[in-house]
Design a protein that fits this description.
With 112 residues, this protein is an alpha/beta fold. The protein contains 3 helices and 4 strands, in the order H-H-E-E-H-E-E.
């Protein structure tokens, strides 16, 4: 159990580093950040970090190929997952994160 908490914490720290270093993590399908205020950008970065941490900690989602981008509380998921169940579970996990207003799930199901 301590290992899971450690992994969540380590994942959160890694996510913060990624959120602070890279703003463009997905394809052009997510909206531009040019109209955001600094406060909105910070809030969106916090939401992105929380979403990534929750996805990493979710046992029912294989999240190693999921990219997350947040704009004005709307979370965009892109990348690939191994099954339709993972895609659905990812949406459910993200909707449970505080600050998320909606989820745009653009995940593709990888061919087996």
């Amino acid at each position: 159990m301590k290992t899971i908490q450690f992994l969540k914490t380590a994942g959160s720290i890694a996510c913060v580093a990624f959120a602070l270093n890279a703003t463009a993590q997905t394809s052009a399908s997510a909206p531009s950040a040019s109209s955001e205020t600094i406060g909105q950008h910070f809030d969106d970065g916090t939401i992105t970090t929380k979403v990534k941490a929750e996805l990493l900690g979710a046992k029912n989602v294989k999240s190693t190929h999921i990219h997350v981008k947040t704009r004005k509380g709307v979370v965009w998921l892109t990348g690939s997952v191994p099954s339709a169940e993972d895609k659905t579970a990812a949406t459910e996990v993200v909707q449970g994160v505080k600050g998320v207003s909606s989820v745009k799930n653009r995940l593709k199901i990888a061919a087996e």
